Amino acid sequence: SGDVYFGALRRTGNFSGVVEQTPYGETLVQLGLNAHDFCLKLQAGETFTSPAIICGYSNSGFETMSHNLHNFAKDFILRAGLRPVLYNSWEATEFGVTCEEQKKLAKRAQELGAELFVVDDGWFGERNGIENGLGDWYVNEEKFPNGIDELIKEVKSLGLLFGIWVEPEMINPDSDLYRAHPDWVLALPGYTPLTGRHQFVLNLNIPEAFDYLLERMSWLLGEHAVDYVKWDMNRELVQPGHQGRAAADAQTRQFYRLLDTLVARFPHIEFESCSSGGGRIDYEVLKRSHRFWASDNNDALERNTIQRGMSYFFPPEVMGAHIGNRHCHATFRQHSIAFRGLTALFGHMGLELDPVSADEEERAGYRKYAALHKQWRDVIHHGVQWRIDMPDATTLAHGVVSPDEAQAIFLVSQLAMPDYTLMAPLRLAGLEASARYQVTLLDHPNIQITGEGGHTMRKLPAWMTTPQTVSGEWLQQAGLALPILDPESAILIGLQRV
Ligand code: GLA
Fold first, then answer.
1. Of the listed 149, 176, 296, 392, which one is catalytic?
2. Helix axes 207-222, 248-265, angle to 10 degrees
């Protein structure tokens, strides 16, 4: 409930946002180009269009804000696409990419239910770590003695689509490209450019640099059977300069021109926008891409709140959500496969793990949750998303209802030990009040009630053990009783109108 004024800038990269209280007691909000690194001299007759803002107002809280933004994205921005369940090799192999290893991963990924295989960083130049190779967009012949086509052929023979990682706007000082063209860096004369993740930014305003990238990317995408590109961009623009002038906005415009040209040349290719997660998630990039990587932090517990935040602004189908290894790459925490699988269910699902070293229980879990996602993908990707307020801040609940309100899927995640002794009822949203729904417990942790490893004081509500048919009104007004859940576990509830 309540008034919400909201807005988002339709621009990628550096920007400026100001919120201030005027002397008149009003709150003034400004969003736009950042004057700090923007410079433009307009010639007579020339025009310049500053970036647009998407903005709106809701008198019924954040849910309406979010629905309006999602509808805007769906009606005006989103590119249609399959949004296949993908497998990404990054957390399995990092830079240690070889053709033989990737072929093994692809086979396992296919067995687990992936529909697309994405080879991540490390396939090109002398890219053996973060310090080298960016800019040299040629296949590494030691890793791929017969070119990248050998892997693509294998991937396709498994019935999978093929995707590949690139970070075109970047250049490592330790690269052949930099050695040949040290003057292609986006920098200001008189200042030593700073590296970020050991890389400089390539100045796309230099026509030769732009043409080089366009040629290399067109070679990669046009001469190989590529279906999907993960386009990364892993550092900030610091003192971005061209011909002695601030050039952040000019650089962004050239980035759009490059991507637009590739999208027009290769309309069948789906693009993922990535920037270690987070840095390139905006409505202007969304016009040119199919999904975002939400964060490199793939810890299922952290991911619950990361995804909740992102969900207000962008619909589930564009939010990359991956099941990771049992040992999280980012935090070294461990979560059950059920918690990881359910957390990754409500987005554009992926698997980012090592299926070769995983045990059978883990692999069975990957298969199960990939299959569950495919079964519900249509509802998750085309329905209406609802976040449910729970009085206990340790419980996070959300779900998606199909546009005709006939089907719905809701998740209740318990993030920590509950603050209260009893769980509040789960009051659902978005259902048809006068209809009756069959309530099904789709997935739950192994809830032992008593005995060894169980809880002596826990009782499961009746609907969890005996299927029930309940009215939409009851589900929304009275709600479903919930059991006390262990921290870092979740239950999944399906609803079907009868
Ligand atoms: C970034 C991305 C990761 C991975 C690495 C590769 O951190 O977010 O997913 O692609 O780069 O270097």
1. 296
2. 30
